[in-house]
Amino acid sequence: MPEALARLSDVTAGYEGHLVFDGLDLTIPAGQVVALCGPNGSGKSTALRVMRRLITPQSGAVEAVGKPLGDWGAKDLARQIAMLSQSPDAPDELRVRDLVMLGRFPHRRAFRGPAQQDHDAVEQALRRTEMSDLGERPIAALSGGQLQRAWIAMVLAQEAPAILLDEPTNHLDLAHSLEILELLRSLNREEGRSFVVVLHDLNMAARYADHIVMFRAGRVAASGATGEVMTEEIIARVFGIDCSLFDHPLLGCPIVVPLASSNARGP
């Protein structure tokens, strides 16, 4: 496994004339759970899309899994890096099991139906996300939390060693949010899969991430091991709030307690 899952060097990228970042340098370590945090519009989701080649940078260089991103074929890249965007879409009448089967596309040969290993991967993904009983239900009949878990099952069925997730706990209640993040961490610890996750909840990031990247205004404000990045000074500079940090007595991770807005945000 390469030391870096992805590396962005002096990258400029954005959307239809709107520049999100200009000259961004970012290294995502492989084999870890990495959380991307920061205010809305700071560049987190755009960085994910650049890494997965869903956005072509205007300038700069991008490497993924040890070689230039442009050297990967589409299916080969999909076998290496899966991604779930923030607002995925599919026909309402599509069954959950068929949605999850879409994750097998990079592994299937043209003009052939699913093989047994595809069906096995789908069933395993449904079990892991506690969606087995809903496999025959159309996605329009799911609650918001169930639908989010169905999409996550689709990404897991892709069986890529690296998975990018843009706000995977969106629409999930606290219990299911914890279950999904526990699942990601267990897959990382047991199978060595890499996860890059956009999270707005700093306490979730502190609990589950090995490495945190803090974005602010299209720049990397801080990047490193969770304990190094989760500081009152960095949080104040990135989010413009005063806060206190405490060590959790059982989990051993920092707890962020927001206090009030502040003028601590730096240039």
Fill in the keyword field for this structure.
single chain, 267 residues, alpha/beta, six-stranded mixed sheet, four-stranded antiparallel sheet, 9 helices, 32% helix, 30% strand, globular
What does it look like?
This protein is α/β, with parallel strands linked by helices and 267 residues long. Helix content is 32%, strand content 30%. The chain has 9 helices and 12 strands. It has helices spanning 44-51, 74-80, 96-101, 116-128, 144-157, 174-191, 202-208, 226-229, 232-239; strands at 4-15, 18-29, 33-37, 59-64, 67-68, 81-84, 162-166, 194-198, 211-216, 219-225, 241-247, 254-261. Helix 4 packs across helix 5 (144-157). It is globular.
Overall geometric form: globular
Class from helix and strand fractions: alpha/beta
Mean pLDDT, rounded to whole units? 91
DSSP summary, beta strand count:
12
Multimeric organization: single chain
Number of helices: 9
Helix content: 25-40%
SSE run: EEEHEEHEHHHEHEHEEHHEE
Give the spatial strand order of the biggest sheet. Answer: 6-7-8-3-9-10
End-to-end Cα distance, whole Å, is 37 Å
Strand content: 25-35%
The whole-angstrom Rg is 19 Å
Largest beta sheet, briefly? Answer: 6 strands, mixed
Regions with pLDDT < 50 over 5+ consecutive residues? none
